[in-house]
Amino acid sequence: MKTFKHTCALLSFACATSICSAASVRITFDNPIYNGPGGFDNVSISYPGGSSDVAASRFQGTASNIVGVPSSIFVDGINDVYMYCYDLYHGISGGQVVNYTINLAGALSRTLDFLGAVNGVMNFGKATADPYAWLHPVDANQGAAIQLGIWESKYDNAGWNLGTGSFKAAGLESATNTYWNSFKNAIGTYGDVDAHSVMTFESTSAQGMIAGDPPANVPEPGSLALLGAGLASLAFARRNKVQ
User: Fold this and answer.
1) What is residue 156's predicted lDDT score, i.e. its pLDDT?
2) CA end-to-end span of the chain, whole Å?
């Protein structure tokens, strides 16, 4: 009985220190919210069930109250959490504080395809590639183009045309349009971003986000299964030894 209790304790510990627990984070958005790339592009968008004039670019904030994942999961640290909007049905504003659930498998395959193209374009000709280049736009227009592509990837399931389909955008600045065309034309040329390197922040009351996630920092379900099997085998061996 003592051995069985010890094994159960080990399994409970493994689960408690892994994604068995619901992962969550509190994000405090910078004010101004577009702190990093230095601005945004005002565009008009339409999407299933709505339309709006929005400021498109990358968001920035800080992370606290991190549960279920290590703080090292945030690519650029907890004081520089870079994100894009992944939800057009809620709002967000500078200085807002939101408690999010972290979804380690929340990105759609089309989004991963688009981000792979962004990385390919941004890393072209560089001696060292940045696997999270999509999080590091060089200016506001590039950040806006990435944001628009993320929306296109999520809300339109056919093609990559901002002028037609379920998601549309108009009024882009010339520089934003140039970046968008370079990313769009590279889709299929470069491999998609690994699903394990992307996570989403989800909330029922605030705008959802998409961010980077270094995969090596989070235990995979397969690894947990192997751990559980190993501990079960250990318990069985010890029980036989006692008998």
Assistant:
1) 98
2) 12
